[in-house]
Design a protein that fits this description.
By secondary structure, the chain is α/β, with parallel strands linked by helices. The chain folds into two domains: 168 residues, Rossmann fold (3-Layer(aba) Sandwich), CATH 3.40.50; 151 residues, Glycogen Phosphorylase B (Rossmann fold). The strands form two sheets. A six-stranded parallel β-sheet has the order 2-1-3-4-5-6. It has a six-stranded parallel β-sheet with strand order 9-8-7-10-11-12, with helices on both faces. Helix 10 packs across helix 15 and helix 13 packs across helix 16. The two termini are 18 Å apart.
Length: 356
């Protein structure tokens, strides 16, 4: 008996983008063990990915985009043997859903459409720009309509998808708890407040800079920023570490308190709270804005505190800086919560159910 075949359509190369790693890549071994065969088809290859978000190299960027579109077009002639086409976010970063339409109405394949952000909305920093127009945000609702099933990272995203499709599954972003684990931390005189994320979310960290500035007058702490891009601000108490797959668990374990500030808007409502999950998985207490799924994670886990204004941020961070034992207690609760509710193992059946 031949294995059932799945084609994963995604924007970025394997093992490079957090959304892909934690939405489906960490399930690939499970899929293989369940007698599925699969192929990954990223829009960008590794060379294109490494230059696309850096300044300059305009000619190379255009050339790689053209090559990527050609490869995506040629892929349309290779779909005959696949039962499921799993599309993470979109088949191409700009333009109408031409690929998705062909898959659904010409090849008549079953599309599993997966997203973990409010991708039907314009990015806050791109409203009214040519870039926003080219992204063709209206295609999201069309792909939802054409899909066999829609996989959403939280209830807010699912409510949008349910307007266009009856088969919507809340499939949370999860953590591989055998990989994300607590390591013994070396003693340090300074408490480390940590933030991790990509360049696109660094804007949220700026929201708590006034709080951190104030705290720095009373406490000797360090702000550790782990990202693929250095922040465009500099403060005396900050240390930047470039994100690296090789050292990501070691780097997360350097943190004593994990933070996730957010603005309270419709875009942030779609966030899946992944930063909080990462901190909790390595037994770190959390402080976050109770926006979207963050509120659920903070309330249910009891692994830290919600903070909605500068006064609350100041008080909650002060409490954690001053109390080592409290940090340990909350960190343990967070780890237990992730293992039970947001681990790969606990979510395995939900993910595999997408292919049934």
């Amino acid at each position: 008996m031949k294995p059932r075949k799945i084609l994963f359509i995604c924007p970025y190369p394997f093992d490079e983008a957090p959304s892909q790693r934690f939405r489906y890549e960490q399930y690939l071994n499970i899929i293989k063990n369940e007698a599925y065969a699969f192929r990954l088809a990223p829009f960008l290859n590794l060379k294109a990915w490494k230059i696309l978000y850096k300044s300059g190299n305009s000619a190379k960027k255009i050339a790689w985009l053209i090559i990527s579109f050609i490869k995506r077009f040629l892929l349309l002639f290779q779909l005959h043997s696949y039962e499921f086409i799993f599309i993470h976010r979109e088949a191409s970063p700009v333009g109408p859903p031409f690929f998705e339409w062909i898959v659904r109405f010409i090849w008549r394949k079953k599309i599993i459409y997966d997203f973990d952000d409010a991708i039907w909305l314009e990015d806050p920093g791109e409203k009214g720009s040519l870039k926003a127009v080219l992204k063709w945000k209206s295609k999201v609702r069309n792909i939802c309509k054409w899909s066999y099933k829609v996989s959403c990272g939280n209830e807010y995203l699912a409510e949008f998808a349910k307007k266009y499709n009856d088969k919507v599954v809340v499939n949370p972003t999860t953590i591989d708890t055998t990989y994300h684990r607590a390591l013994e931390k070396k003693d340090s005189e300074k408490t480390v407040i940590g933030w991790t994320g990509t360049h696109s979310t660094l804007q949220y960290l700026k929201l708590v800079l006034p709080v951190l500035d104030q705290l720095s007058t009373n406490y000797d702490f360090e702000l550790l920023v782990i990202s693929n891009q250095k922040p465009d601000f500099d403060v005396h108490y900050m240390r930047f570490i470039p994100w690296s797959k090789r050292s990501e668990i070691e780097d997360l374990n350097k943190i004593d308190i994990g933070i996730m500030p957010l603005s309270n808007d419709i875009w942030s409502q779609g966030k899946c709270g992944f930063k909080l999950l990462q901190y909790m998985a390595v037994k770190k207490p959390i402080v976050g804005s109770p926006v979207g799924v963050n509120e659920k994670l903070l309330t249910e886990s009891r692994a830290g505190y919600s903070a909605t204004n500068e006064k609350e941020w100041t008080q909650k961070l002060s409490d954690l800086i001053e109390d080592y034992n409290l940090r340990n207690q909350l960190g343990k609760k967070g780890r237990e919560y992730v293992e039970k509710n947001y681990s790969v193992l606990s979510n395995k059946n939900i993910f595999l159910g997408l292919m049934k």
